[in-house]
Design the sequence.
């Protein structure tokens, strides 16, 4: 009984995630009782690893730590005796920092330290109190979900039957396409100034084939990225365009040079997605899609900066694992005037273009449509399945490519 009341140092080797994150969660879970305490009120502080983090507690017997579980290389705890002050020092030097937290809730009194160098959580407590902390650590230290996000950024040409955009596919006339208006299973959380629709098929390629049966579809980009749950994946393909933001010159000297301030703006195809997986399998996607380009011949002599054409989609949607959702509604009008006529005669001033020439006005309307499909990777088997699928696609692509001249 007396040994159970002796405070000891236990080392929990974190297998998934960061030890500092677990230490912060424990500080809130065990130290914050009224929901209004701040980290400094919980005793959360940065300390040097060579400082007496653990030894600041009451002295204990050196043999009082022999009852802790041994370190077997897997997730678990190792009991280390407190030796009066430098038990937290590391052979890596004292330039690293740890986070120490004194937690007292009822009869539970522990000190928690995050060792970021070894990715471990150090707990200074009695064996009985540590059992409570260890149970919480084991429940928190689980492999995080990963999400494979497949996207297709497309430009859909709007023909006569789709002159009002792809929203026309919602009507009964085009229900065979397979796009249905979003319900509770895929609902934009924010007010999205366009439309969102679910596709009844299982893959994005099937959705593209369906759209190509109605109109011309141009795939601008088709990225695929794996990202951890609650982390942001970013894909940028384009150029950095210099933009003049200001000019300055000295008023004291007439021959002083003009100094320009220039910023660089990312243009091209930019996609940022943050997935959040619920326990029910639903995936919340915070996404921002931008397609931008410099307008040809748009630089002005006054500011000498280009005009950038931008189309953006930013929203949050909830979708089931494996479903395909389409986001669109950004329509742009393009007009190209093509002059034709008889050689030489059509170039006669004033009368030539009228009598011997012709001007064709090509007006096209396109709609930016983003197709997204999240696939949750919960374990190693799911990860291998995704990897095998990518390997098979690459193998099929290799068979289609020409092999002449390739070693």
Sequence:
């Amino acid at each position: 009984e007396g040994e159970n009341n002796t405070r000891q140092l236990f080392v929990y080797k974190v297998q998934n995630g960061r030890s500092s994150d677990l230490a912060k969660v424990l500080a809130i879970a065990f130290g914050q009782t009224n929901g209004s305490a701040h980290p400094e009120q919980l005793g959360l502080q940065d300390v040097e690893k060579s400082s007496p983090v653990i030894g600041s507690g009451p002295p204990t017997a050196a043999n009082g730590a022999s009852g802790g579980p041994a370190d077997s290389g897997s997730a678990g705890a190792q009991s280390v005796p407190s030796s009066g002050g430098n038990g937290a020092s590391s052979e890596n030097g004292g330039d690293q920092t740890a986070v120490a937290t004194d937690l007292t809730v009822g009869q539970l009194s522990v000190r928690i330290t995050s060792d970021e160098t070894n990715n471990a959580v150090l707990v200074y407590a009695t064996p009985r109190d540590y059992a409570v902390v260890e149970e919480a650590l084991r429940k928190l230290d689980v492999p995080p979900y990963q999400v494979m996000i497949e996207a297709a950024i497309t430009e859909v040409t709007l023909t006569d039957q789709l002159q009002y955009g792809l929203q026309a596919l919602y009507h009964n006339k085009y229900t065979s396409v397979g796009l249905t208006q979003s319900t509770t299973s895929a609902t934009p959380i924010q007010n999205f100034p366009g439309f969102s629709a679910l596709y009844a098929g299982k893959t994005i390629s099937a959705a593209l084939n369906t759209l190509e049966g109605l109109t011309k579809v141009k795939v601008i980009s088709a990225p695929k990225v794996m990202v951890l749950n609650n982390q942001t994946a970013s894909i940028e393909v384009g150029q950095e365009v210099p933009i003049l933001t200001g000019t300055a010159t000295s008023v004291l000297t007439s021959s002083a040079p003009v100094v320009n301030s220039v910023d660089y703006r990312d243009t091209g195809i930019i996609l940022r997605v943050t997935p959040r997986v619920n326990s029910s399998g639903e995936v919340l996607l915070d996404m921002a899609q931008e397609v931008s380009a410099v307008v040809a011949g748009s630089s002005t002599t006054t500011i000498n900066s280009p005009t950038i054409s931008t189309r953006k989609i930013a929203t949050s949607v909830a979708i089931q694992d494996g479903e395909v959702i389409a986001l669109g509604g950004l329509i742009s009008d393009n007009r190209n005037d093509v002059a034709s006529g008889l050689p030489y005669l059509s170039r006669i001033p004033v009368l030539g273009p009228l009598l011997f020439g012709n001007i064709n006005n090509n007006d096209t309307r396109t709609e930016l449509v983003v197709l997204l499909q999240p696939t949750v990777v919960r374990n190693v088997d799911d990860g291998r399945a995704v990897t095998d699928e990518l390997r098979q696609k690459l193998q099929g692509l290799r068979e289609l490519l020409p092999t002449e001249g390739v070693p």
About this structure: Residues 32-99, 172-176, 183-193 have pLDDT under 50 and may be disordered. The chain is about 15% helix and 40% strand. The two ends are 74 Å apart (CA to CA). The chain has two domains: 3-140, 146-400.
